[in-house]
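Q: Sequence in, structure out?
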Amino acid sequence: MALSQSEQRALLNERLESVLDAIAESLITSDFVDPQIVSNNQKTIIDGIIQVGRSNLQKLILYEKDVDANAEDLNLAFDGTNYGANLIDIVSNFGDEDFWIEVHGGGSIILYSTTMYNTGVDITPLLSLPADSEGTIVNPINVSQFMNIEQQVSDIDTEQANEFLDTTIFELLPSDLTRQERVNRFFTEWEELKGEVPIFDVSGSGSPDFPQPDGFVDDNFSSNNYSATHDISWAQDFQGEENIIPVEESFITRLDSTANTTNSGKTMESLRDQLNEYLKDIDEDPFLPQDPRPSYDNNSDGFLKFRHLNQGIIVRSTTDKYIEGLNPNTKEYLTTGFTVTMWVRFLDKVSEGTLFNFGNPMRELEDNPLGFSLETFVIDKNDYLQSTGETYGDYVEGHTVYNQDSQLPFFSDTGVERFVKLSVREDDLTLRDSHVGISYDSGYARKTSVEEGTSPDAGKLTFTRIPIDHREWYFIVATYNPTIDEDNSFDLSGCPPVNYFHPDFNEFTSECNKNPDFWRGNILHENGQYTSFSGKGARCKVEIISRSDLLRARGYKV
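A: Exactly. Output:
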């Protein structure tokens, strides 16, 4: 693969640095360079200007890289040669071959390589220029990065020194460690001396050859094997024998039974026993907090039990032909509204059917449908959507669909989800139901009923979801309120922004059609404020609460 321009530049700079390093090392080790030449070619700052040549009293300028220290070398060029215009050209012709530098008599610098320059090329003109007419070195030779060290010795009269100097220097004595420093040192030593943790067989199953394992994971590896490769006691007592760890590589002895005299009471076992004396409080079973809340006692003696959905009782009046408000001819319930409540416990994941009904609102129009129904249904993640041909599981995963009551993904706890819906057939044969207006994709928004939507299969996911818990009772409240202005609730704007962890629901979503709380009647579309009753939204609504949550809210122990 061809290198990019930036990679080529980086490689060239690396090779230039290597060549300049080799030149400097060859010069400093040659007979041509002496301390005076080094000083004359070093750089310093005088009156704010970088100049060449310094004394020991002047500060030395050092560069991080030789390329920066000898930048002048990159600008000089040969005159009338075939080796390249300058040092950059020469280094650019290098491949991965080896190169070396030789310094000949008089300071000539010769570059050799295993391929292109095997006969050598004099690169001295590329590395230095003679002093100008005023004697100033224009381009120093490549030794400016080295420092002169002058050895000086001062003779001291010890008798006079003792007469005038205090030779007791307390600053050089070791200071006492602080308490925290001693603690830090202790744990540092512990980390160094504890060794590797043995691998135990917690099952203790053993093998036919070793029916009584001593707790190690390998039946052929015993506690003695571990001691031989770990403990300082074994290292001291059996040094020189096979498979014994060296003393200076050993660790704290693990067991009291394998400790020698030197390490008696200095084992992990003895340390454990001492630590237990300081930690008896946390070794006890944790104290469980007392719950002062009272337990709830059921007030009723029992309940009616329906073995299957769609099987139940018929409620009728003993004095009149129809129960008050449920006359199919006058349909007072469409004017007054109604609320159906019940306690339900679902004992399986598959049962579907009617929980309560009056008439049959789902009949075909030619069959004069009327009444209302409260029913439950389940959706399996492997069921197929007729509109798309994909499974509900794939649909939910692809659209990141969340239920708005729990804000948890569907099918996260189980492969089945249960829903409850209320359907009401009005006088003009309009079918209304309790789904909430929310768009899981661009093709679905709330209608008066799921059947009217462009994605009715997806719309089923917008009904009230009941958690799958066979032990739990749920209180269901299904309400129909004809005073709610549902027909004029569509396509309203001004609802507060919503974010239900779904790409379609972000801070810019303000359409009421896509806000479930609006359709539940809890948002004033005029200002987006929450309310207990807005007068807008859906006429049908289903709410649930579990028995546990209800008792907990009332202050009872669950």
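Residues 206-213, 439-443, 500-508 have pLDDT under 50 and may be disordered.
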